[in-house]
Each structure stands twice: as structure tokens, then as C-alpha cells.
Amino acid sequence: MLIHSLLDRDGSSCTLTYDESEGWLRATWRGYIDATEAMHGASEYLTHVGPLHCAYLLNDNSALRGSWFDSVEWLERVWLPQALQRGLHYVAHVVQADTRTDILTLTFPAPLVGMLELQIFHQVAEAEEWLRSCQQRT
Hints:
By secondary structure, this protein is α/β, with parallel strands linked by helices. 35% of the residues lie in helices and 29% in strands. The protein has a six-stranded mixed sheet with strand order 1-2-3-4-5-6, with helices on both faces. Strand 5, helix 3 (103-107) and strand 6 form a beta-alpha-beta unit.
């Protein structure tokens, strides 16, 4: 189910969907996303997911190009507390295919014990499998 989609004039996009059969949210980022677009897309997540109160997010950066969101501080200080209030507990983060890394793999802190589990993946299928295993534990 499509929740929200942002399309920039250069063709880059952020699409937020809810996969009803799997029971998780999926944020799919494509193209070159600058810091403003990244913050806008992340903020739109907060705006639209409240009623779902979903504990699982697959954040798919595999189709991104160029450098990605460099404000981990903003994610920690602003976005994360609000996402936790909306029920987020598990994040499967798929890194960019062209670099096999991004800022989260380099700087994101250890998981918040009892509040959030973040796992980094290179393949979407691996991220999906991990989210399924998390669902079986809860």
C-alpha cells in the first residue's frame, strides 16, 4: 500500500509503502538525494506512519547514487525519538549498491538497548529475512 511518494525534478525519489503481507514499512530511496530531500523524506515518514504504529522498517538505499544524508546527528536527535514514539523498533538498512556503504555504516551508534535494533545489509533479500526473524521473536 502506497503511503507517500516524493519525486524531485531530477528524477530522484523517496517512496514509503506498507507491505501488508509482510507487516512492515518500506522506504525506497532512488537517485541522487541531497540533504534537504533526505530530511524531507524522513520527516514525511514521521507524518504518515503514526496510525500504523509499525515496529518494522526496511530502509532501502540500494538504488541511491552519490553521497547520502550526512546528518546522523539530526537522525539521532530529531527523527529517532519521534520514530520510537510511533512504534519503530527494528530497522533493516540496505546500503547503496554502488558504494556498498553509507554514512550509517560509518557513524551510527550502537543500538539503543531495548528500544531499537538496527542492522545493515547489502542485499534487500537479507534485510527482509532479518525482519521476518524479528517478527518471529516478538
